[in-house]
Amino acid sequence: VNRRSPTAAIDRRGLAGTTGRRWLAVAIGALLLVAGCAGCGGEPTGAAAVVTSPPRIPAGLETLTGVPAPPDTSCGDATESLRPTGPLPAPGQMPAGSTMAKIKDRGRLIAGVDQNAYLFGYRDPISGELTGFDIDIAREIALAIFGDASKIEFHPMTAAQRIPALKNNEVDVVVRTFTVNCERRKEIQFSSVYYQSAQRVLVRRGSSLNGLADLGEKRVCAAKGSTSIQRIASAESKPVPIQVNAALDCLMLLQLGKVDAISTDDVVLHGFAAQDPGTEVVGPAVGADPYGIGIPKANEDMVRFVNGVLERLRSDGTWTAFYEKNLSSVLGQPPAPPEPLYQQD
Amino acid sequence: MTAKREVAVSAPSTVPVRQPTPVRRPEPVQQPGQHPVPARSLRRMFDERVTRLRSASATTPGRFGLIGVGLVLLIALVGLLTAVGVAQRTAAMNHLVGASEPRATAALQVHGALSDADAMASRAFLSSEQEPLEVRQKVRQRYEDAIARAQTSLAVAARGAADETAGPITELATQLPVYVGLVETARANSRQGFPVGAAYLRDASSLMRERLLPAARQLREIEARNQQADVDAANGFPYDLVLLGLVLLVGLVAAQLYLFRRTNRRLNIGLLAATGAVVVWSLWLVIAVSNQVGGIEDSVRRGSAQTDVLAAASVKAREAKAAETLTLVLRGGKPEVDPFTKPISELGDAGGGLLAQARRLVTDAPVGSEVDSAIENVQAWRQVHDDLRKHDDVGQYKEAVDLAILPEDRSADSVFNRLEVNLDQGYKHAEQAFKEEATAARNATSGLVAGIVVLTIVALAGSAWGMWQRFREYL
Q: Would an 8 Å CB–CB cutoff place A37 in contact with chain B?
């Protein structure tokens, strides 16, 4: 700090005696002040304090506290759907008065989808087109109704928007990594299971973590309101469940070192691993997540119709072709399509 | 003149001259070892002085002497106080123009640059096959420029800043690099087609909205307050200084009346000159300060009041742009609450919000026409926004993005750019007006301090000489 006050300058020159000097300095100081010497006066000259900014918590991140309620099993096997009624009607010739006939009259199928689920429903970064396994399945339903797979309107939505959209009849179907369970079946209908997903664990490559059992006290991330976060919260090893608004945020948090692992559907995890070679999917399946197509509760004819479409996809090899096209690059050879289960009529 | 002199010469005969001081108290004897002067003796010395003065004032030359000394002291005091008062105003003006105004402008620029960076960061994530490459490069360039502008303006705002701004400046200085890091990570991921890029962008944008922009707003408000304090300091009319000048004038006139009665001389050149000097400085003071006060008021009315609102409007426009773009980039479909709605309604139109406020404040026609165009462009933007939302809500993502960036005449981008130009032009005009008025206000009192000092010396010399002329006649 080299700034000197006018007093110091005069002291050095020794202009006057001890007392006179002080008065002179004050007088000169006052004169300087008077002469409008703004800006040439000294400023506070403390050394810069060491500043640490408060740690930043990414938006939407929170720790899930409390033990979640055990899964609802009141409906028995939630994956049992309604049996298709005979062979599918020919495209363009839907039974009069049916839900499908109304859709046909409207001219397009409205499907709720995801735009951000890598491999299942996402925008191709090059073409900008919606693509993925869910999207292909949804187009097949349009094809069965219209004979034209392009007569479809995609409504992108978040996980939390799925059930409200169905209950308000804003969409005809939701094809969006939608896990079938009893709780949801109280409010909507599900088709038969078209994809069997398993919850697994994604960690940084080279970490000694090999599954949920190793994650005691570790921060494990999943999407808010998902079945995954509930399994993390109720795991015996007692991990710290970290929930975020969108599963994709989990990958960012893992990359930023703010969580130790992500545990959710394997297809999502493989999608993450494909975006970050520094991560890997480890351990055995923590739980099973069967995906079904969501349909408004009242539209039983539509459920049976969609199940008929799925029957065809399984049997004519389309399902396997979709798997190979969308998923084989990260999940390997396609397994057999999941067997449909139907309720006793 | 000669007749008068004769009268004056005859005066000593009627009035006793050189009256000796009659009372002489015995000097107290200083005892050895009794070093400090005893209180009693001090008291005695004081009494002695008072008595001497009293007896001196009993005689005419003694009174002349006292009046002379009194006038000199009064002139010196009033001159000094007036010079100090004016210098303080000048200092406040200099501080306003030279320090607090640049800092307030820097704070505005930090806020504006940050909002610009956020709008451009998310804009860079929207792309269409038909979008020309140079447009994308321009967006990237504008993002980089905005970050650079924010950094340099932050450095200016931090220069000699008050303690109260330490909080927001620290927040900005520590979080801006974090923001830039998140945006770059988002970019690197998106270039490889990884959706996680969008997660980084969303996080960067929430960091901007939740911490950087509020800190910048806080900084702007503090600096605006400081600027206002300087305006207030320089803006009051100095009634006290004018009153002091009047008191001095009364004193001078009274002295001349007294001399006239005592000596029958009508004119005392010295005292007249002193009176003239005081009259001149008082008039100069009143005129210069009135000009200054008017100039400062004009600088606020034509300048800073409008730049504040227009800069805030620019920030809101960019916040709206960032919200609109981010919703598209995140591809979440129909948002429960469209984040575009809040900033665009705060930006407002003819009926309310910042633009209505700007319209009320308009003083100059060029600013007025820019504000009117801005209001039209906001209306056009709302319409395009509704259209593109209608597409995006039903999954027509490409159509929505194209509407956001492609058509040169009616894309959300082009309307936004026109709106920005309106606000920017209006801002520049008002800023120019501020500079003109503030400089004129500052210059209104230039030379006044020196003038007052010179005139004080003239008045001192005049009154001293004038009184000496009368006093001398008794010697």
A: yes
